[in-house]
Amino acid sequence: MKLSSILAAVFLSVFTLCMPVLSQSPGHHGRKFLDTLDYDFTFAAVNTSLPNANTTGAPLVLGYSGYTHGMAIYVTSTYYTYPYNSYPSLRLVKHALRAIDSRGEWSTNATIVRSRDSLVWISSTMYPYPEDNARIFSAEGCQSSQYPILTAYNISSLWSLCPYPGFRGQTQLVFNATTAGPPPLYDPALCYPVNINIVPAERATVTVPL
Length: 210
Ligand SMILES: *[C@@H]1O[C@H](CO)[C@@H](O)[C@H](O)[C@H]1NC(C)=O
Ligand SMILES: *[C@@H]1O[C@H](CO)[C@@H](O)[C@H](O)[C@H]1NC(C)=O
Ligand SMILES: *[C@@H]1O[C@H](CO)[C@@H](O)[C@H](O)[C@H]1NC(C)=O
Ligand SMILES: *[C@@H]1O[C@H](CO)[C@@H](O)[C@H](O)[C@H]1NC(C)=O
Ligand SMILES: *[C@@H]1O[C@H](CO)[C@@H](O)[C@H](O)[C@H]1NC(C)=O
Hints:
Strand order of the largest sheet: 5-6-7-9-4-3-2-14-12-13-8
Distance between the termini: 54 Å
Number of domains: 1
Bound molecules: 2-acetamido-2-deoxy-beta-D-glucopyranose
Low-confidence stretches: 6-15
Number of strands: 14
Order of helices and strands: HEEEEEEEEEEEEEE
Oligomer: single chain
Mean pLDDT: 84
């Protein structure tokens, strides 16, 4: 292999990683986290260890997962494996993630994400839920990318996409997917690490109530 192609491969793989924006704020270890964004957005996943078709990434959507106790449960899935998008805009307000439906209504929130679990959302207009204030998410600025990326607990590097088995199994966004433990629902060997780009929504019509 020529040196120039090796350098190009190194440059490309570095390019897909987040080079943090430096911040002067104490306690951030030089990284810049935003707890609120003043625009609506969608998520797109870029591979950090595999080639990418483009720098924006593969679009993610809320994939329906079930209904229990008056709440609809959604997982975060690739649009490729769940080709419906009932929630065209997402919002980050004071470290909490909200999903806004196509009528502009908000009744869906991200929940606390745990190791080896999908990023789960719940929707209910009827019942309060202890995890409706999962204030663990931030947007981290990247020098090397036009988009900020999603963090949970200030960590951006533990997201993976994992294909779930079964009929119409969705490829889901999982946190800390490949860590040891009892067998999860997915096969960890099939997971691949991603960064989650925060891409401004095409129709960002609503201003964020803080
Ligand atoms: C994330 O970083 C901020 C700033 O350093 C800090 O105040 C906050 O406690 C951190 N959150 C977590 C969950 O570590
Ligand atoms: C990331 O890699 C997977 C597995 O090869 C592929 O299916 C997916 O399209 C890639 N993502 C992008 C944005 O190219
Ligand atoms: C980028 O690549 C992904 C994965 O192949 C694809 O799903 C997505 O539509 C592409 N996005 C653009 C803007 O071309
Ligand atoms: C979503 O979060 C808001 C604000 O915390 C809360 O009022 C609402 O009940 C939550 N909805 C669900 C379904 O958790
Ligand atoms: C990821 O999993 C490992 C092993 O279970 C655990 O020690 C670590 O705390 C987890 N990381 C986070 C951020 O939860």
